[in-house]
Structures are given as structure tokens and as C-alpha cells.
Here is the input.
Amino acid sequence: MLGSEIDAFFQARKEVWLKKNINTSMDVAATKIKKAECESLFLLENWLPSAAKRAGQISISTHPCTFSHPSSRKNKNGSASSVIANTAQANDGYLRSGNVCVEADALGNAATLDVYKFLTLIMYDGNSLLTHIQRDSDLALDLLRIKSASYQELKNGFLAMIESKSENTTSSKIKQVYFPVEENYHQLSLLTASGIVFELRKRIDDLRFSDEVKEIRKCKNDNVFHEKSYKQLNNITTIGYGGTKPQNISVLNNQYGGRAHLLLCAPPSLKKREIQFPNIDFFSQAITPFQCKNIFYSLHELYQYRKHNKDIRDERDKHFREIIDKIVATMWAVRAVADTQFKPESSQLKRTQRIWLCSEFAEQREQEDAWLDVIADQVSQFIFTGYEKVLKKRAIIFDDREYDYISAQVESAKEALR
Here is the structure.
């Protein structure tokens, strides 16, 4: 006996072959013949020489070119080189080859996948059967010593799976970039690290569909306590390789049905600020006349009336107060974000507005009035000129008396600005 791993491999292959070639309609004699044929087919004397000849039809690769394009394997220059990245592990913080423990992939004739599975069997010491053959271990010597072929012939045949050409060959179907190096460019062929791709698929599936996670989910749905929790990944999509023939892409791709998961890589969604602290002027950045345009339009309708009775004057004063209230509401919103958004080293805000808006001047705001007179005058200017900016050519031109009246309205509400 060469080992339980090898015995289990051949036993599984026999079962698959018998299931495919024997059916219930066969008589006992025909079934016996098929079973004998199966034993002969998987006898080491017969199977190993055939497998060694077929091994060269498949190549081990950590970055199969077929993930870029299914037809990139062969071109006018011959077969694209099989890339095997032997990168050392390092704690450098990068998700890359060498830092993720994955199995090597393979590409080539799908009919030789059984040979790949045979050579990648993990033996009792943790090494693959292929590694044993490379090292001429006792296990390899016992396995490949048969009468129908020499040991060296079988070894050379199996090692053809990992042989690389002396000259690297790429394909026009592989995406390529010219990367600047000093005063020249270096051409790079972009390849997919399929082992990492399907390791991600495996880990995501374990997080979502393992037996333990299913049990925890069931407890949650039934409102039953469970001592463990589970993780959930949102915004996952699936990408397919190879269509209906995933085996034409690679061995790993075939094992996972040609499906891999993609995580969301969109930039973060930034919350839009509803209010921003002004760095030059409150009355042009925090609030503008056009934010009060509906009020100014209503004022304009009143100004067009020829009658100037008490009801119309009261309506006009109400609109003035609405604008003042809007300024006061904006003032409080700006004060709320002052501590986090105000940058004194870069701000061009005048001192009067700094006293008005910044929390560090709160005590000064209560004790002094000079700054408040300046702000009240700026509010009056905002209302007086804002009407003309919004209505433009349709605006009625006012004189100083109207400005004095607006100032009187602001003066009556001045304390609300403190």
C-alpha cells in the first residue's frame, strides 16, 4: 500500500467510472466485464504511463492567462507561458501572492484534470505528491517503479506539468500596460491571481453559508439565544469565468463552477453638509438673497399695490420679519458647527462676524453692543440690496426712507441676533 491518500484517489476514480459505465439494464456477465475493465484501467502499470504522457497537456500556474481571455492560451507565437509566482511571505500589509496561503491553479486540457488532482494530493508529511517526485523520495520511488515504464520516463512526464520555457511568451489577448522605468518603459501583462480570487470566494461562503452560521441564523429567526454571533457582508456581486465551460479556464475555476465573488470597491458616500461655516462673509456664504427669493417676490407684489393701508403695511412688516427670522435660524446653525469647522489660521472672516458666530466670543457677545450694531446694519443691507438682486430690472428703486424703515424693523429685532 502506497498510502491512504493515493488509495482513496483511485477508489474515487473507480467509483465515478463504474457509475458512468454500468447501468441496471446490464446482465451479470456484462457487469463483471466492466468491473474487470475498470480494475485494469486504474492499475498502476496501466494508468501511470498514460497519466505521465498526458501531464504535459496541463500546466500549473498561479496566474492563469485564461482569466483575462479564454483564448489567450494559444496564439501565433505558441502557448502563453505558465506563470508561477514564488513570492515569500512578509508582514508588509499587502494582499498579494505569498501573503495568502492558497493552492496553485492549473490550466490546459480539461481531460487531464485527473492527473493534476493526482499530483497535487497531499501526502502524510504535508507535501504534495509532485513535490515527492521532484525530490525522488522513497514514496515516489515506490510509486513509480513499475514494469511497463522506467522511473525516469514517468518522472520526466509528470514534471512536464511545471516545466517553464526558456523564453517567456505572452498573448495579444492579455491586457497590457507600459510602465515607466527611468527613461524607458517596461511592458507588463496583467494577470489574475486565481488562488486569491477563489480563496476570497471560499472565505465569503464560509461566513455566509457554513453549518454554524446557518444554525446561528436559525436561532435569530426563531428568537432563540445563541452564545455566538455571525458576520454579514453586504453589496456582494458575482462574476463568471468561462460561461458553460469553466473547465476551459482553469482547474480552480472548474472546482468553483466558474463563479467568484466581488466586494464593493466604490468610494465612501460622503454626507453633504447642510451648513458650512463661512470663511469670508456670512451674508454671501451662509445665506444669500436667493434663499429668500419667495419672500422678496411677495414683497414685490405688495409694493405694486397703489393702496397703502394698514393691512398692506402689516403684511410688508411680516415679510421683513420672515427674512430676519431666516437669518437668525442660519446664525444658530452656523454657531452649531463653529467649533468643528472654524479654522482661525485660514479664515478671512472679519472680527465682527467672528464675535457674532464663534463660541469663544460668547461672553463678549453678552457684554458688548458695538459688534451688534454692525451686524444689524449688515442685516439691513442684506434685505435692502437683496430685493434688487432677486428682482433685478423689475425691482422698484427705493430711496433712503425705505432703508431707514428696514433698519427700524431690524433694530426692533436686534436682540434676536445676539
Remarks:
- The chain is about 50% helix and 10% strand.
- The first helix runs from residue 4 to 21.
- The chain has a mean pLDDT of 88.
- The beta strands are 58-61, 74-75, 78-79, 105-108, 176-181, 184-189, 237-240, 259-262.
